[in-house]
Amino acid sequence: MSDRVSEGAAPAVDVPAGLEGPHWDGEGVLAAPAPAKLNLFLHITGRRADGMHTLQTLFQFLDWGDTLHLTPTAQPVIERAATIPGIPEEEDLTLRAARLLAEHTGHDGGVRLCLEKRLPVGGGLGGGSSDAATVLLALNRLWGCGLSRAELAGLGAALGADIPVFIGGSAAWAEGVGERLSPVGELAEPWYLVVWPPGEGVSTRRAFADPALTRNHPEVTILDFSQGRCGNDFGPVVERLHPELVRIREWLDRNAPGPGRLTGSGACSFAECSDRAQAEALRALVPTEWSAAVARGRNRHPLADWAFATGREG
Ligand SMILES: C[C@](O)(CO)[C@H](O)COP(=O)(O)OP(=O)(O)OC[C@H]1O[C@@H](n2ccc(N)nc2=O)[C@H](O)[C@@H]1O
Ligand SMILES: Nc1ncnc2c1ncn2[C@@H]1O[C@H](COP(=O)(O)OP(=O)(O)OP(=O)(O)O)[C@@H](O)[C@H]1O
């Protein structure tokens, strides 16, 4: 077992984790990590004329995520090696990211993508966004496109609001519609227990569209966060749509040292633990109808330095 993370339907046996740094795992195949993110708090502060919501949130990465296996090819074909259940090819953010980068830069080669999916879809962990960001970061280097971090983040923003933070590479305070990012390097990196109802993803679009959503949260500062005055405005709305999330939050409130919190628009909730042993012990107590993972908070993305290093890839 990895020393970083365990996952699986509780109290299932730990499975090997997959968040190693980038490495060549076969002839010409790069394995690249796509970590999860947590929204340590999330307030919705307004709604723009175009319907998009302004928010304040604090992002931190987890040492847990998906792995992309990328095989660059000389032929100009961008394809995926396997289907992803529930995600048709035209919606697949990994393919869309690769095609966008090729179009934007005029790159004439191709790539074969194989996604090792671990993060629950619609979990509020930003899995699809992180997969897309990893494709952009990896191909920008493998294809020698030479886009700057800011250019790549701008490209990613066109595909999803959560993509720029993964490209930025640092835990960050976010404002605007999520694109105004200020790196925050000093956050503690605690062990978390993450719990979710298997197979019950939340639609972010639907949660944002709910008439009952609080949209006028007054602006806060990081001091408000550190003094425990921040929460997640999606809570009441998604708990009404997904009553199981009430039970999960109440379970975490009763059993975890810290309160249960929702990440993004759900469906995952998380609680901070004092160390890995405590998080693992708690995971063993999670009711078997839910899934759970133990993972550590991280302030740096595992590709943050590799992606913009000069010299030969690898
Ligand atoms: C909830 C968060 O995960 C918090 O980090 C993000 O704000 C959502 O990021 P995301 O999943 O990448 O969302 P996107 O795919 O960009 O947007 C999905 C839909 O959510 C709504 N949306 C999204 C972001 C935002 N600031 N305001 C919105 O109203 C829009 O209807 C949009 O069409
Ligand atoms: N490679 C992918 N992995 C996961 N979802 C994808 C992918 N490509 C496209 N999607 C679509 O993106 C949507 C959001 O999936 P994702 O797992 O990123 O949600 P999430 O964790 O709730 O995201 P967020 O916290 O950013 O709202 C799903 O409806 C899914 O169909």
Automatic annotation (TrEMBL):
BP-aspect Gene Ontology terms: isopentenyl diphosphate biosynthetic process, methylerythritol 4-phosphate pathway; terpenoid biosynthetic process
Function comment: Catalyzes the phosphorylation of the position 2 hydroxy group of 4-diphosphocytidyl-2C-methyl-D-erythritol.
Family to which this protein belongs: Belongs to the GHMP kinase family. IspE subfamily.
Organism taxonomic ancestry: Bacteria, Pseudomonadati, Pseudomonadota, Gammaproteobacteria, Thiohalorhabdales
Annotated GHMP kinase C-terminal domain residues: 234-284
Pathway membership, UniProt: Isoprenoid biosynthesis; isopentenyl diphosphate biosynthesis via DXP pathway; isopentenyl diphosphate from 1-deoxy-D-xylulose 5-phosphate: step 3/6
Record-listed E.C. numbers: 2.7.1.148
Highest taxon of source: Bacteria
The protein, known as: 4-diphosphocytidyl-2-C-methyl-D-erythritol kinase
Residues of the GHMP kinase N-terminal domain: 93-168
Keyword ATP-binding on entry: yes
